Amino acid sequence: MENEKSILVVDDEEQIVNVVKAYLEKEGYKVFTAFSGKDAIDIFNLETIDFIVLDLMLPDLSGEEVCKKIRVKSQVPILMLTAKVEEGDRINGLNIGADDYMVKPFSPKELVARVRAILRRLENSNIKADIIEFNNGDLAIDFSKMEVRKKGKQIKLTPTEFKILSLLSKNIGKVFSREELINKALGFDFEGYDRTIDAHIKNIRHKIEDEKNKYIKTIYGVGYKFLGG
């Protein structure tokens, strides 16, 4: 098959793991499996993992804890699985670094489509080789390396956060609605709520802004725009 990516599937329900594994392998992905948070972290540290499907409810470490530990060292795309239906729970997952989420029960075919879409967006984000700086170097964005620096120090953005920041920063002053950000940055096949954009914007602001330099402005009732500087 054409896919050469390795995916780690983490869930304490063996049936779910087996079904997801079968669907992903059918698409040509190499699949690693873990039934606990500790095993997931051990596998991630030993293997080259390109994507993680992560359940929130694990017997030892929670999915949130696993996500936080992985985000310390890697920006690998993470799709969270959750039985929690409240919007606040889903937003919390995005706030700690997940790129997307699916609520159980879910369609394995849709999960594969989400995985494929996120990986495709990640690959497409390496098109430009330019480096853009703002406010005399306070913020620097290297599109070829997918790196962002604040005051010379590299900061960590998830692939989704980088995609959104790239779109905004390349269109200074242009107002993007939430729907436009989803379509242009996340792709037309993104199935999440438009309010998930708010969570991603909040994360980006926390990482790139300070009291002196504000980069993203909220246009109430419409969306967001990048101020530059």
TrEMBL record:
Protein keywords: DNA-binding, Phosphoprotein, Transcription, Transcription regulation, Two-component regulatory system
Alphabetized SMART domains for the sequence: REC, Trans_reg_C
Biological process per Gene Ontology, one example term: regulation of DNA-templated transcription
Matches recorded under InterPro entries: CheY-like_superfamily, OmpR/PhoB-type_DNA-bd, Sig_transdc_resp-reg_C-effctor, Sig_transdc_resp-reg_receiver, WalR-like, WH-like_DNA-bd_sf
Pfam families noted in UniProt: Response_reg, Trans_reg_C
Entry keyword annotation includes DNA-binding: yes
DNA-binding region: 129-228
Molecular-function GO term, any one: phosphorelay response regulator activity
Protein name, as recorded: DNA-binding response regulator
